[in-house]
Write a structure and sequence with these properties.
Elements (H helix, E strand, L loop, with lengths): L1 E9 L4 H17 L4 E8 L5 E8 L2 H10 L1 H7 L4 E11 L15
Antiparallel strand pairs: 1-3, 1-4, 2-3
Length: about 110
């Protein structure tokens, strides 16, 4: 498993609009990406900074997303994010996320 962490500074009073954009625009786009597993977004109590972690089956899936769809995501968030987002990547050593088991045909 592979993870991408995107750190962003929000514009003043941008937290509510950021949350709406993540839920209504970004997550639907992520769900269409090959190898996407999960998205977890953390907001600092000050409401000024967020860290968004996306989990991917492989580093190749994450890199494909980075090349193709991530530029669209940054455009979606320009109205609420200040400055350039910072991206870091990680190999996931462990996780409790479980993939759904395919239903067995009776």
């Amino acid at each position: 498993m592979f993870a991408r962490k995107v750190s962003m500074h929000l514009k003043i009073n941008g937290a509510a609009e950021f949350k709406k954009k993540i839920e209504c625009e970004v997550i639907p786009l992520l769900r269409k990406q090959a190898g996407f597993l999960d998205e977890i977004t953390f907001l600092y109590p000050s409401g000024k900074e967020v860290h968004a972690f996306s989990l991917w089956e492989t580093a190749e899936h994450a890199e494909a997303y980075n090349r193709t769809a991530y530029p669209e995501v940054t455009k979606m968030l320009t109205s609420v994010v200040e400055g350039a987002p910072r991206v870091q990547t990680y190999e996931v050593l462990n996780s409790t996320i479980q993939k759904p088991v395919a239903a067995v045909a009776a």
